[in-house]
């Protein structure tokens, strides 16, 4: 019969799995072991024994909502054993201590949005606090907006992965070969096909991908597809939402990035019919906005691009004329071109003087004595974007001066001393910005290098070494500069000729 013992041997002998001699009141084994013999086993099975069992721990059974009975008792016993086995220390636990002790809560795994946010914050705290000059002011606004956009989260992952790989001495893969790049593109495609297409988070994701492809590319490639996409999206979205800090920051950074580009093809803005004089006049209001720190508009970007477009057209014309070596009516062509170039140079010089006086008056630019510099003085700026603007307009001034200088040398065989002095004065203005650029201590961002290239030919030997040191400093993370000093000098000189339209093997665009 199930549950009925086969013999009446004592419980102690059954636990030890030995045969009980059943000599009552004490069996022989219990007597020799000096144990209390429980006596003969009953012919029915007890649910709970009222006598102690030697060698067996007695567990406290707490009440259970499952109810009373064998099933409820066994369930409580399993819970009690599981709980007591997880307690360290080896000491005895009273029923009160067992009931008071609660299990520790399980750690909650962070979500992908939280992981991206923490990774971005660690990069910001680890050396990217001064990132305005990188065109990444809007990144400071991203940690609180990552959770609301999947494409922004994936773009942040791409930027962080690219930055981590860029900091290594030898990156293993190109940015576009990273798996995060394909994932960011897929998320962006999904966002552009639903109601997130015109949100500030989507625009920030495109801008972040543009910055990653521009900053972390060591192969010298240029992928401006994201830049064109960002400009096109800004046109479709309309005016900037001044109540949204992220919207304002990302639009301003995109304007600044395009302002530093100079090239018509890179800007991606369709050509206009505005004359360069009108464009330059309208650019004065944009300069004042930048000096005062006001938000820029799309029209401001088009105004600056219009000035660059006319300048680029002038350089292309000069380049084509130089290739012909002035064989066909050189004096007539040079005279007609020089008249237009003189007018443009005078207008640009007037604009620069206006910008400089206004910035000094507003305190946005400060002249500081610098005994260690080659000039003896330096400029300090309240905003790195203002330094970018000043270098841009200085480059705009250097280009027509170089055209006039080269034309005069080709026609007359000698260089004009007045033009050389004017070139030197503009070059000194650019060199006064170099100490400020070094003081920003950036990681990967590129300040406009074209002004440094354009001043290399008019510098003396000491100044040339200073320019090469600065170019090498700007290239410390990119690794595009040749290792030897002679090769670096040839590299900078060739860059200058390309920018001025004087390189016979390269086109300006």
Proportion of strand residues: under 5%
For the record, the count of structural domains works out to 3
Mean of residue pLDDT?
A: 70
Poorly predicted ranges (pLDDT <50, ≥5 residues)? 46-51, 60-71, 81-92, 129-133, 259-274
DSSP, total strands: 2
The neighbouring-strand order within the major sheet is 1-2
The residue fraction in helices comes out at 55-70%
Q: What is the C-alpha radius of gyration, as a whole number of Å?
A: 40 Å
How many H/I helices? 20
GO molecular function, one term: zinc ion binding
Domain Zn(2)-C6 fungal-type: 9-37
Organism: Clonostachys byssicola
Protein name: Zn(2)-C6 fungal-type domain-containing protein
Please write out the topology.
Elements: H1 11-16, H2 28-32, H3 70-85, H4 95-100, H5 112-125, H6 150-166, H7 179-192, H8 200-215, H9 225-237, H10 245-259, H11 264-267, H12 276-292, H13 298-323, H14 330-362, E1 365-369, E2 377-381, H15 384-412, H16 417-431, H17 434-440, H18 450-454, H19 461-474, H20 485-499
Antiparallel strand pairs: 1-2
Helix pairs in contact: 5-6, 6-7, 6-8, 7-8, 8-9, 8-10, 10-13, 12-13, 12-14, 13-15, 14-15, 15-16, 19-20
């Amino acid at each position: 019969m199930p549950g009925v013992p086969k013999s009446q041997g004592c419980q102690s002998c059954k636990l030890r799995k030995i045969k009980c001699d059943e000599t009552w009141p004490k069996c022989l084994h219990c007597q020799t072991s000096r144990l209390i013999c429980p006596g003969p086993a009953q012919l029915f099975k007890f649910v709970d024994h009222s006598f102690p069992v030697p060698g067996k721990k007695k567990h406290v059974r707490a009440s259970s909502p499952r109810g009373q009975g064998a099933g409820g008792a066994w369930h409580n016993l399993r819970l009690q054993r599981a709980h007591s086995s997880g307690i360290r220390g080896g000491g005895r636990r009273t029923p009160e201590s067992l009931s008071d002790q609660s299990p520790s809560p399980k750690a909650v795994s962070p979500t992908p949005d939280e992981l991206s946010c923490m990774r971005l914050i660690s990069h910001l705290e680890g050396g990217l606090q001064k990132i305005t000059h990188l065109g990444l002011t809007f990144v400071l606004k991203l940690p609180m907006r990552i959770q609301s956009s999947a494409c922004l989260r994936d773009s942040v992952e791409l930027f962080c992965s690219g930055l981590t790989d860029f900091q290594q001495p030898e990156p293993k893969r190109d940015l576009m070969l990273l798996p995060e790049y394909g994932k960011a593109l897929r998320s962006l495609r999904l966002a552009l096909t639903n109601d997130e297409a015109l949100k500030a988070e989507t625009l920030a994701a495109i801008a972040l991908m543009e910055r990653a492809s521009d900053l972390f590319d060591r192969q010298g490639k240029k992928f401006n597809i994201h830049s064109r996409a960002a400009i096109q999206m800004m046109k479709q979205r309309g005016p900037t939402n001044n109540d949204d800090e992220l919207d304002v920051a990302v639009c301003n950074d995109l304007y600044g990035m395009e302002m530093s580009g100079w090239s018509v093809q890179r800007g991606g803005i369709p050509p206009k019919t505005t004359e360069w004089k009108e464009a330059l006049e309208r650019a004065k209001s944009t300069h004042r906005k930048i000096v005062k720190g006001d938000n820029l508009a799309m029209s401001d970007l088009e105004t600056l691009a219009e000035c660059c477009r006319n300048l680029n057209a002038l350089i292309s014309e000069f380049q084509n004329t130089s290739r012909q070596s002035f064989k066909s009516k050189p004096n007539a062509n040079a005279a007609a071109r020089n008249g237009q170039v003189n007018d443009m140079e005078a207008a640009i010089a007037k604009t620069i003087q206006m910008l400089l006086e206004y910035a000094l008056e507003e305190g946005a630019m400060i002249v500081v004595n610098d005994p260690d510099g080659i000039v003896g003085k330096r400029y300090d700026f309240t905003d790195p974007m203002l330094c970018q603007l000043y270098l841009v307009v200085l480059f705009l001034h250097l280009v027509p001066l170089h055209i006039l200088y080269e034309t005069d040398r080709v026609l007359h065989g000698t260089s004009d001393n007045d033009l050389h002095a004017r070139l030197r004065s503009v070059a000194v203005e650019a060199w006064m910005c170099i100490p400020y650029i070094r003081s920003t201590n950036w990681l990967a961002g590129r300040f406009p290098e074209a002004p440094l290239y354009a001043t290399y030919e008019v510098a003396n030997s000491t100044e040339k070494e200073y320019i090469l040191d600065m170019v090498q400093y700007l290239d410390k993370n990119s690794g595009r500069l040749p290792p030897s000093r002679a090769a670096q000098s040839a590299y900078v000189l060739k860059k200058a000729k390309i920018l001025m339209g004087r390189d016979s093997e390269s086109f300006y665009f």
